[in-house]
């Protein structure tokens, strides 16, 4: 499975590390399918202002209107609790983190903490047969930014 394929489906292949070489014209169709299925999409640019101001967790939480915010930068327990609750309210969830290579290079502990928190809560979505994917867009891609930044 490459790129963003499968993000509209409940799969155990829920972590995506996407390189620009894996993005093509079908990517637009993939995200159109996501929207048709009412799957919630969160787009966060690691190099964006919201991440600089309040961190990754808070940037994701604000878009999802999660209940336990504001989060401390390294307090993942309430974050994954909120994502578990969200599994019973949404049709699915896709989190796209742009400029992920910069995230990994500058904050590797936080990068891996995010993966761990995501994986802890993932099984609730999977048992409900709902898509739940964490996508690391490794390099900035203007197509992804244009498709998702305002949605």
Short description:
This protein is α/β, with parallel strands linked by helices and 151 residues long. It contains 6 helices and 4 strands.
In terms of structural class, how would the helical and strand content be classed? alpha/beta
- Number of E-type strands: 4
Oligomer: single chain
Strand order of the largest sheet: 1-4-3-2
Instruction: For the record, give the distance between the C-alpha atoms at the N and C termini, rounded to a whole number.
Output: 25 Å
Radius of gyration: 14 Å
* Average of per-residue pLDDT values: 91
Give an account of the 3D structure:
It is a single chain. The protein has one domain (about 15-150). The chain is globular. It is built from 6 helices and 4 strands, in the order E-H-E-H-H-E-H-H-E-H. Helix 4 (about 100-105) crosses helix 5. The chain is about 50% helix and about 15% strand. With about 150 residues, it is an alpha/beta fold. It has a 4-stranded parallel beta sheet with strand order 1-4-3-2, sandwiched between helices. The longest helix has 20 residues, at about 110-125.
């Amino acid at each position: 499975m490459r790129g963003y394929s499968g993000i509209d489906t409940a799969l155990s292949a829920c972590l995506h590390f996407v390189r620009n070489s894996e993005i093509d014209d079908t990517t637009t169709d993939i995200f159109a399918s996501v929207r048709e299925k009412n799957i919630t999409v969160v787009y966060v640019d690691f190099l964006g202002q919201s991440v600089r101001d309040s961190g990754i967790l808070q940037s994701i939480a604000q878009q999802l209107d999660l209940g336990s915010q504001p989060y401390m930068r390294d307090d993942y327990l309430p974050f994954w609790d909120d994502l578990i609750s969200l599994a019973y309210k949404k049709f699915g969830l896709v989190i796209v983190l742009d400029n992920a290579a910069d995230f990994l290079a500058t904050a590797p502990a936080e990068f891996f903490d995010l993966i761990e928190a995501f994986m802890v809560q993932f099984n609730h979505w999977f048992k409900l047969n709902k898509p739940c994917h964490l996508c690391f867009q490794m390099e900035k891609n203007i197509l992804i930014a244009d498709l998702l930044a305002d949605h």
